[in-house]
Write a structure and sequence with these properties.
- The chain has 261 residues and is an alpha/beta fold.
- Helix content is 41%, strand content 16%.
- The protein has helices spanning 12-15, 18-28, 43-52, 74-81, 108-124, 136-145, 162-170, 187-195, 225-236, 240-255, and strands spanning 2-7, 30-35, 56-60, 86-95, 128-133, 153-155, 174-177, 201-203.
- Helix 4 packs parallel to helix 5.
- The chain binds zinc ion (2 copies).
- One zinc ion is lined by residues 6, 8, 36, 91, 206.
Length: 261
Amino acid sequence: MFVDSHCHLSFPELAGRIDAIRADMATAGVDKALCICTTLEEFEMVHGLARRFDNFWCSAGVHPDNEGVQEPSVDDLVALATRPRVVAIGETGLDYYRLAGRGVEDMAWQRDRFRVHIRAACATGLPLVIHTRSASADTLAILREEGAERCGGVFHCFTETMEVARAALDLGFYVSFSGILTFKNATELQEVARFVPLERCLIETDSPYLAPVPFRGKTNTPALVPHVAAKLAELKDLDVREVAEATSANFETLFKTSSKA
Ligand SMILES: [Zn+2]
Ligand SMILES: [Zn+2]
């Protein structure tokens, strides 16, 4: 059985299709999913999914790309973290990919927001779901400065270099692979996936985005996460069942969902 460690089922592409998505998950052997929060405004909807279905859990956090939304305080996040079935803080991190004419020096608000999330994670003991894009040096520096090894977490939808993977592992974090791993041109990432020990790997869809081959370009759903597992198994020369078992066990070790039932 497979676990999708990162999906956005509250997004408009998927929100109206939950019953069909769940039926497809059951058919595909995907028995758990972590629903990720990207704004405080969205939290109640994401949390509603985790409350309604006993194999869904959720996170609390504000994505670094979201501007013009409610800015979370440490207290806001700590309060949400105490709600039932909330098992992670995030997604949070840094994204310098779309600076829209600004420089990195103009993104202090993103770094401040990231620190707020790390402090909330350390205060609650919940792990972090990290999003980092074109910003790995600052992401790692802030994680170290804030002592994020105390809460741990996962670098989700990993697309960084071997050196960044090594640094994430050194901090005690997990590395999560998405459908990007199946893309033909993802040769460097495939090398990273060979390198990351299986006991530190997670798999995810990041639905509705990044559908794996042979569904690339289509709307992604958690039912497609076995394609990511199959690619990881191929790269590591393992049986897909071993990858399914290990990544599911890793998910439980990190997010402790059975104690937040
Ligand atoms: Zn992300
Ligand atoms: Zn995401």
